[in-house]
């Protein structure tokens, strides 16, 4: 295929970004459903003592704890007479999907839909990790010492670090890395790097 020019690529990205984010906003619950289901199954398997149910409400992941609060004490839900719940906004993680879609479809390549499906699967896996890390952070802050009574949990510092990495770093960086891997042989990077470097080297050479 004919290598895309840098100007054409960035022009298409600018045009596709609004459309991609409008579709993402409209289909927010559809895009969130598979990752919430998998993350919920993982959390209930890992922390059955703390989590009774995980559901999806629009784009919000709702974690119903097995415990409640009574006079400042964390007790089993049956004793407390209530049940603590935690809400996670999946859009803080899934915005990587429209970002990746704009980059991907702005770049002409073979088997574009198949490649996009593979990239979407990778992003979904990263979102699942991010949801689990965010859930651990919320449970840790909300339940305090009760949370760490469960065996096999990582230390608080590790939970905080993985949460920050999953929320702050992965959503904006992962789409770019995925796209860069797909487009590595399409001729864009020489236009961005090799040619300017070659012109500079030529201008600095004695023969130039």
Categorize the overall geometry.
elongated
**Low-confidence residue ranges:** none
Helix and strand content put the structural class at: alpha+beta
Tell me the radius of gyration: 23 Å
Largest beta sheet: strand ordering: 1-2-5
User: Helix-strand pattern, N to C?
Assistant: HHEEEEHEHHHHHH
Written description of the protein model:
By secondary structure, this protein is of the alpha+beta class. It has a domain at 6-49 and 92-185. Helices cover 66% and strands 12% of the residues. The chain is built from 9 helices and 5 strands, in the order H-H-E-E-E-E-H-E-H-H-H-H-H-H. The chain has a 3-stranded antiparallel sheet with strand order 1-2-5. It has a two-stranded antiparallel ribbon with strand order 3-4. A hairpin with a 2-residue loop joins strand 3 (67-70) and strand 4 (73-76). Helix 1 (6-26) packs antiparallel against helix 5 (96-105) and helix 2 (28-46) crosses helix 6. The model has no long low-confidence stretch (mean pLDDT 86).
């Amino acid at each position: 295929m004919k290598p895309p020019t840098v100007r054409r690529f960035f022009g298409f990205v600018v045009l596709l970004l609004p459309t991609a984010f409008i579709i993402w906003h409209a289909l927010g619950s559809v895009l969130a459903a598979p990752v919430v289901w998998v993350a919920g199954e993982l959390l209930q398997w890992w922390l059955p003592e703390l989590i009774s149910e995980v559901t999806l409400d629009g784009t919000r992941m709702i974690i119903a704890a097995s415990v409640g609060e009574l006079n400042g004490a964390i007790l089993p839900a049956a004793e407390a007479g209530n049940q603590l719940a935690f809400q996670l906004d999946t859009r803080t993680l899934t915005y990587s999907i429209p970002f990746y879609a704009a980059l991907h479809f702005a770049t002409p390549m073979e088997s574009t839909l198949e490649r996009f499906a593979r990239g979407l699967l990778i992003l979904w896996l990263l979102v699942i990790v991010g949801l689990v890390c965010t859930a651990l952070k919320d449970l840790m802050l909300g339940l305090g010492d009760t949370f760490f009574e469960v065996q096999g949990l990582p230390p608080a510092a590790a939970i905080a670090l993985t949460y920050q990495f999953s929320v702050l770093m992965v959503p904006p960086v992962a789409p770019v890395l995925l796209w860069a891997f797909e487009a590595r042989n399409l001729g864009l990077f020489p236009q961005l790097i090799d040619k300017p470097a070659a012109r500079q080297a030529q201008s600095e050479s004695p023969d130039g």
